[in-house]
Amino acid sequence: MTDTPSAIPARTPLQIAELYVDCWRRKDFSDLRPHLADDCEFVGVLGTASGPDEFLQGLNGMAAGTDSLEIRKRLADDTDVITWFDLGMAGAPPTAVANWTHVEAGLITRVNVTFDPREILAVG
Question: Where are the transmembrane segments (predicted)?
Fold first, then answer.
């Protein structure tokens, strides 16, 4: 099998989770789109999304309001990555966030996010 220019290099779940955050910081998710399963799901405190288009729409909305994103810890195995980070949004103090990303066959199939949104919502 030979690589073609459009071929997506295989990435580990950890590398995909790192790309997820990198895209968020850049506020550009074009590099993440090829790593989303057609039936990917997002479940979070502020909403849910089904499929890549809704998933990216939600991420773009969060990224647009993001002032800072500081990774504290990341733990990974063969299919799952937990990323603990501090999220600064809308001028609110940084909020601790836990993001669980599940990857199958190189594609994100599910992301669950939990945090206390009260300070963010109070500012917005």
Answer: none
Q: Say how many residues make up the chain.
A: 124
Question: Dihedral angle at the C-alpha atoms of 89, 91, 93, 98, nearest 10 degrees?
Answer: 0
**pLDDT tens per residue across span 59-87:** 999 999 999 999 999 999 999 999 999 99
Angle between helices 51-64 and 13-26 (to 10 degrees): 50
All domains in the chain, ordered by first residue: 13-123 (3.10.450.50)
Gap between the Cα atoms of 105 and 13, Å rounded: 9
Beta pairing, strands 36-44 & 107-115: parallel
Q: Give tens-digit pLDDT for 42-57.
A: 999 989 999 999 999 9
